[in-house]
Amino acid sequence: MPATVTASRSEPLGRIPIRALSPQQPENRWPATGYVGEVVPFEATVFREGHGLLRVDLKTNRVTRLDDAPHSTSLGCDGIAWDRGAIVAVQNGVTPARITRFALDASGMRIVRADVLDRNSTVADEPTIGTVVGPEFVYVANSQWEKHDDVGRRVLARALTRPVLLAVPLPSMSK
Q1: Percentage helix, strand, coil, to 5, in the chain?
Q2: Is residue 108 packed enough to be buried (19+ CB in 10 Å), middle (13-18) or exposed (0-12)?
Q3: Sheet containing 111-118: which strands, arranged edge to edge?
Q4: Could you give the C-alpha distances from 69 to 76, 101, 117, in angstroms and in order?
Q5: How far apart are CA 133 and CA 40, in angstroms?
Q6: Which of 33, 45, 90, 135 gets the most CB atoms within 10 Å of its CB?
C-alpha cells in the first residue's frame, strides 16, 4: 500500500510503498486494547532510500521527512534504533561513515541535535546494522558490501575479513 510522502522543507517526496505492516487488525473490526505507555512492537517494509529520516503515521500511512537539525544531515541512515527520545543510526550513506544520535523535539517531527558518537574508519570500513544493548549502541563495523558486486556475487580480488562488532557508549539523558 503506497503512502504519500511530504518533505517539511521541500517538494513532496512522492510515493513510498509500505508493505507487510504487522501487527494488523482485520478490517479494524475490534477496538484496540492496551494501555498508555505500552510498547507495541511492529514491523513494516518501507521502500525508499536517500531521503533522510522518515516518520510513518500507521493510521493514515502518511510518511513525512523529519526536519534536520541545523548544520547536519540525516541522509544515508541504516541500522536505526530508538534511544530515549532519540534515533541512533549508522550513517553509511555519507562520507565519512559514522554512528549518529539524532535527538528529537517533543513532537517527534524535528531533529533538534545530531551528535556523532563514532567515526572509526580504520576498523569500521563499511558499518551497518546496529541495536541498543543496555547503555551502548552495538553495530557491525565491517559489512563487507564492497567485497561483492552489484548483483551480490563475491569479488574474489577483495579479501573477506572476520566480522567485527563495535560498541559505542550512549550519552546520558542530561546531555
Answers
A1: 5, 40, 55
A2: exposed
A3: 77-82, 86-91, 98-104, 111-118
A4: 15, 11, 16
A5: 19
A6: 90
Per-residue pLDDT of the chain in tens (175 residues, 90 and over written 9): 444 444 444 444 555 555 556 666 666 555 556 666 766 666 555 555 567 888 888 778 788 889 999 999 998 888 899 999 899 999 988 888 899 999 999 988 899 999 999 997 788 878 988 999 999 999 999 988 888 888 888 999 988 889 999 999 999 865 4
128 CB burial (10 A radius; 0-12, 13-18, 19+): middle
User: CA 122 → CA 57, 157, 163, distances in Å?
Assistant: 39, 20, 14
Residue 159 class from Cβ within 10 Å (0-12 exposed, 13-18 middle, 19+ buried)? exposed
Q: How many Å apart are CA 34 and CA 148, to the nearest integer?
A: 45
Supply the DSSP string of 40-51, one letter for each residue: ---EEEE---SS
Interatomic CA distance for residues 50 and 74, integer angstroms: 9
* Residue 91 burial (CB count, 10 A): 23
Neighbours of 167 (CB within 10 A): 14
Identity of the amino acid at 16: I
d(CA 56, CA 46): 9
